[in-house]
Structure formats: C-alpha cells, structure tokens
C-alpha cells in the first residue's frame, strides 16, 4: 500500500535527509522505524502524509504518486492517514471532545451521529469521562490518548506516529502501545518512529532501521539492535 522507490530528500538548506530509500509496506502491517537522531526517520514518515515531498524518487500510496499530488488533493489523502506526534499537538483551548470532533470529516452526517462517533473513539482510548476537559487538565498520557482518538476518528487506513511515547513515562507508554495494537488489530497499518528499545524488543514487529538517510536493516519481528 505504501511504496517508496529510490527516494531522495534534500532540504532547502542543502542537508540530505534521505538518500535512496526503497521499501514497501503492506496493508495491515505494524512497522517500527528506528535509528539515531538525524538518521532520517521523521523525513521518511513525513513523505508518507505529504508533509514533505521527495526531491527525487516516488512515494506511492495505493499506486498513487503522492509526491506529485496537487495541494487541493492533500486533504483527501489526509483523511486516510492519521498522524500522532511526540508533543500531541492538541488545540489548547478546545476540550478533548472538541479536539476530536474538529478532526472529523463531516460528510452530511447528522449531529447525533457525529456525537456518537466522537464519544465512541474517546471511549476506545478510555477517556469518555474526560470529554469536557481541556488539554491542560489532562496528563501527558491522556493528552496522547486524545491525539490518538483524533487520529482514528475518520477510520484511516494508515496511522503514523512520530515518537508517540517520547514524552511519556514507561507505564503510560505501555498503555499507548496497547491502544496501537488494538488499532492495528482492526486492520489499520501502523507506522511508528521510536527510540524505545524496551517497546521494540518486547512487542515484536517489523523493524526498519535507518542510518544517514538510508535503510540499513529491515527485519520481520526485528530487534531495536543498536546502541543509542
Ligand atoms: P530523525 O527523525 O531520524 O531525527 P530527520 O528526518 O528529522 O531525522 O532529520 C534528518 C536530517 O535532515 C537531519 O540532518 C536534520 O537536521 C535534517 N532536517 C530535518 N528536517 C529539516 C528541515 N526542515 N530543514 C533542513 N534540514 C532538516
Ligand atoms: P453519555 O455517554 O453519558 O451519553 P454524552 O454523550 O452526553 O455522554 O457526553 C459525554 C461527555 O461528552 C459530556 O460530559 C460532554 O463533556 C461531552 N460532550 C458531548 N457533546 C459535546 C459537545 N458537543 N461539545 C463538547 N463536549 C461534548
């Protein structure tokens, strides 16, 4: 479903972030992206949701070359991809409910259906009872769970997480991972950049390891495998 062919990314300042990335990720996979800071993990995943475009090479999603996608087509792509960040990126003045509802693509749905959908995903992440809270009233783990609810509210085919547990303590990180496993179990492709050796080595999944803008290892049920 996601295919990169000889992808290069050179930023405007001349920094080469990716040099010759080729890989395929099939529907329903769970993939960790590991590597030291600056290895190119963020650049690699940003290309998948058109946050960045490749300097050279192809990024195909379901055989569509998204590198060549027009700006007005990007919202349609994003509807099928949920993104989760290390720092949550919730809107601070909106409640948990509103942060999720805001992301819901409303296509002629009645308000009751919208409310049910939002409450269902908040329930899924265990936060139905805190729907009225604003981010400042929630713990980091709770904020990340709201962000996950926001990412999955449109039933995306792909969820991409960039160091989602980077700001969380270990217990909270395991809770987040349980939710990711549930999301993946329903068939959603999950791609997660991480620095957590513990998580990668205990919840075994495919591991793509990056170094200097290249994929240096790609293993089914792989290990974290390098020293930070
Ligand atoms: P990682 O996520 O593994 O830390 P990144 O993809 O963020 O790696 O970064 C890869 C390289 O690209 C680094 O040298 C970084 O400084 C550089 N880089 C990342 N984003 C930008 C940007 N917007 N402009 C210029 N250089 C960037
Ligand atoms: P229940 O599951 O008990 O029926 P509701 O669906 O009425 O609960 O709402 C549960 C929580 O969701 C409420 O406490 C409220 O904070 C929040 N909520 C529901 N609708 C909205 C809305 N439109 N805007 C903000 N918060 C809402």
TrEMBL record:
SUPFAM superfamilies xref list: P-loop containing nucleoside triphosphate hydrolases
Keyword Cell membrane found: yes
Family to which the UniProt record says this protein belongs: Belongs to the ABC transporter superfamily.
Record-level Gene Ontology MF annotations: ATP binding
Annotated source species: Alkalibacillus flavidus
GO biological process, one term: cell division
Keywords annotated in UniProt: ATP-binding, Cell cycle, Cell division, Cell membrane, Membrane, Nucleotide-binding
InterPro entries: AAA+_ATPase, ABC_transporter-like_ATP-bd, ABC_transporter-like_CS, ABC_transpr_LolD-like, Cell_div_FtsE, P-loop_NTPase
ABC transporter domain residues: 2-227
Subcellular localization, as worded in the UniProt entry: Cell membrane
Membrane topology term: Peripheral membrane protein
One Pfam family cited in the UniProt record for this chain: ABC_tran
Superkingdom to which the source organism belongs: Bacteria
Full protein name: Cell division ATP-binding protein FtsE
Reported function: Part of the ABC transporter FtsEX involved in cellular division.
Keyword Secreted: no
Subunit structure: Homodimer. Forms a membrane-associated complex with FtsX.
